[in-house]
Write a structure and sequence with these properties.
heterodimer; A: mainly alpha; two-stranded antiparallel sheet; 2 strands; about 75% helix; B: alpha+beta; five-stranded mixed β-sheet; 4 helices; 5 strands
Chain lengths: ~150, ~140
């Protein structure tokens, strides 16, 4: 049995988004500490990762690929639980909007605003990484309800 | 550099503490105000008695719904006078509005007349369900 086929079609391993969030938090924390050109470059890298997840799906995000490589390398076994990729993808879109706005602010020279926005994304991604609570995913459910005209 | 490290650590710490607090509130069963079916009474309910059935409000994409489904099944298997059903929040919006359901999963606990007398939102385990239904949680598998 291979771990690659253990996840039902159309669903993702729940550990994927958490590991991705941990990598995201690490990248953004490093960016916040070093700042300058290197820091802005790291924010740009993360914005590109968010954009990939939103356009191609969370399973094709570079950080998801890192997770799968780690899962293979350390033989972490099949997913204990799977989830619909819709809410995580929506969460990545939220990350893209906020971090993207932060990147624009940094490139425009409004550094404080830019780093505050990066800090927000850092907080939310570390929240997901450590506790498994995905705020963007919760918003997705609320969004479904609003779309229903409530 | 040190100041930035402190800021980064503070952001992560605040996020984690807030998350833990939020998680601690998951699945907490609260009594429903009898005069307003969409309102709960104080955070800590008086003893909720007379629960005979429950409705799980779920969505197809909800991550913790399978866990709540298992919890309800487990309690239903051990309590003869308890049953539960499930509605899809994305197709049954009237239900969602009537009871002001804001999150999936939400569990509505009903009395013999079918009135909602308690509710809980978020992931919940069999012990929390058993408590609401009023059966001895020790009969559940650990």
């Amino acid at each position: 049995m291979t771990t690659a086929t253990a996840t039902p079609a159309g669903r993702i391993d729940v550990r994927g988004p958490r590991v991705s969030a941990a990598i995201t938090a690490t990248v953004l924390a490093t960016a916040l500490v070093v700042q300058g050109t290197a820091g802005i470059g790291l924010v740009g890298l993360q914005v590109a990762v968010f954009a990939t997840a939103v356009t191609l799906g969370v399973a094709r995000s570079p950080w998801a690929a890192v997770f799968r490589a780690v899962r293979r390398a350390f033989d972490l076994g099949p997913a204990s639980a799977t989830e619909d990729p819709g809410p995580p993808r929506f969460a990545q879109a939220c990350g893209l909007v906020v971090a993207g706005a932060g990147l624009v602010a940094l490139l425009a020279g409004t550094a404080t605003l830019g780093w505050v926005l990066v800090g927000i994304v850092l907080g939310l991604s570390s929240l997901l990484a450590v506790t498994g609570l995905c705020v963007g995913c919760e918003l997705y459910v609320l969004g479904l309800r609003l779309r229903g005209g409530s | 550099m040190i100041a930035r490290l402190v800021i980064v650590a503070a952001i992560v710490a605040v996020a984690v503490v807030a998350g833990r607090w939020w998680q601690s509130r998951q699945g907490r069963v609260r009594a429903v105000d009898p005069t307003r079916s969409d309102r709960t009474t104080d955070d800590e309910p008086a003893v909720v008695s007379g629960v005979v059935s429950a409705t799980l409000v779920s969505t197809p994409t909800c991550r913790t719904c399978p866990q709540v489904r298992r919890a309800l099944d487990e309690v239903a298997a051990r309590a003869d006078d308890f049953s539960w059903d499930e509605v899809d929040a994305t197709t049954d919006l009237d239900m969602v509005r009537l009871h002001d359901v804001r999150r999936a999963p939400t569990v509505l606990f009903r009395d013999a007349r079918g009135d909602v007398i308690a509710r809980a939102a978020g992931a919940m385990g069999a012990h929390q369900v058993a408590e609401a239904v009023g059966i001895d949680a020790t009969v559940l598998a650990a």
